[in-house]
Design brief:
69 residues; mainly alpha; 42% helix; elongated; YABBY_C; YABBY protein C-terminal domain-containing protein; HMG_box_dom_sf
Length: 69
């Protein structure tokens, strides 16, 4: 007896909504902008040291809402 060709049965897929992305914090936005600038000026510095330096700049940055506390 010959096999019958099966046709794929379309399945109902529910649309999965992507979760809403969280708003980027002021610190993360600062680091995203300043870290590449610092690395461009100081090419020989490794990432860890660059991150420490830029994080210390955040402490007194005018963009820091908790500056001086």
């Amino acid at each position: 007896m010959p096999k019958v060709k099966s046709t794929p049965v379309p399945t109902k897929k529910t649309a999965v909504a992507e979760p809403a992305k969280k708003k980027m914090s002021a610190y993360n936005a600062f680091m995203k902008d300043e870290l590449p600038k610092y690395k461009a000026k100081n090419a020989g510095v490794d990432h860890k040291e660059a991150f420490k330096h830029v994080a210390s700049l955040w402490k007194n940055s005018p963009l820091n809402p908790k500056r001086g506390q």
